[in-house]
Amino acid sequence: MEKKRWCSSCTRAVPVEQTDLGLICCIRCGKVLEEDIFSTEATFVKDAGGHSRLAGSLVSTIQGRDSASRERTLQNAEDTIRYIADNLGVGGGDQICLPARRFYEMALMRNFTRGRRADQVAAACLYIACRENNKPFLLIEFSEILRVNVYVLGAVFLQLCKLLRLEEHPFIQKLVDPSLFIHRFASGLLGEVNQEVEKTALHIVASMKRDWMQTGRKPSGICGAALYIAAMSHGYKFSKADIVKIVHICEATLTKRLIEFEDTESGSLTIEEFDRKAVELERQGNLVKKAEKGELLCEHRGSGEPHFAHGLCQTCYGEFIKISGGLDGGAEPPAFQRAERERLARASA
């Protein structure tokens, strides 16, 4: 089976080859991906006294370690992973827990667990598996289960991503879509499934994306504001404190997001007008767009994918529309608005 590894230059999993010096390189661009130089053949050198001795040092293998102790450690880690998953209500079973166990196994092989709490490493592994499978869970929820500061757990997560060379992988770098969290947060707030509230909240999130409110902000704040407005619009009486408990933000953050939404064009509409506008924008977004001529500038450049729109292939364009909320019906970017205000001020002076 052909071995593949993630190459940050090619931004994809690529076939690799090992050189005579022990370097593992990408066969597409030639970048060195691994520098662990070792040889399976014993070599000898002469010391100052003229005696021959074995060169280098012995590298232990997985089979050469204490397998019983290692299996016990891995079993304890898997138990911790399943405990956290059960407490958070992470669905998927083995589809989530087994990849998390494999992440932990790789961390154990590289001595990442030394000097760190095993439950924090296990939680970081489970969080990576959730991000990979688009599960709607926040890191702060993992920290609450472990009763540890979220920044401590966040440091372990970032160090683990660096160790496993995942910091440049798309599922780590890509923005987390706030829409993923709406269904779970709405059920937790209402105590039941209400599709009308969820639908309105999703429309509000999409409107916030178009008005650039998502840029540079955590998804929990966007979800909290959208849920608060949607619940109030459908006759539910919830305080800001109720929202804060569900989405794990402070009340000041929620207030800021509500004020920002109030300043947008959509903030002045009634719920009926807002829903009609949202349906119309959805209908426009669902229209089949014809491919345009142009140069491909996305990550698939040079792969043979045809240009679709705005320098993107059809796959990347679809992801862009999903994350940004679309190109129609929103405000101009904040930097553009600021520059425009400065231009008008200079013109009137």
UniProtKB/TrEMBL annotation:
Organism: Opuntia streptacantha (Prickly pear cactus)
Name assigned to this protein: Cyclin-like domain-containing protein
Subcellular location: Nucleus
InterPro entries for the chain: Cyclin-like_dom (IPR013763), Cyclin-like_sf (IPR036915), TFIIB (IPR000812), TFIIB_cyclin (IPR013150)
Molecular function via GO: RNA polymerase III general transcription initiation factor activity; RNA polymerase III type 3 promoter sequence-specific DNA binding; TBP-class protein binding; zinc ion binding
Any one GO cellular component localisation term in the record: transcription preinitiation complex
Domain of life: Eukaryota
GO terms of biological process kind: transcription preinitiation complex assembly
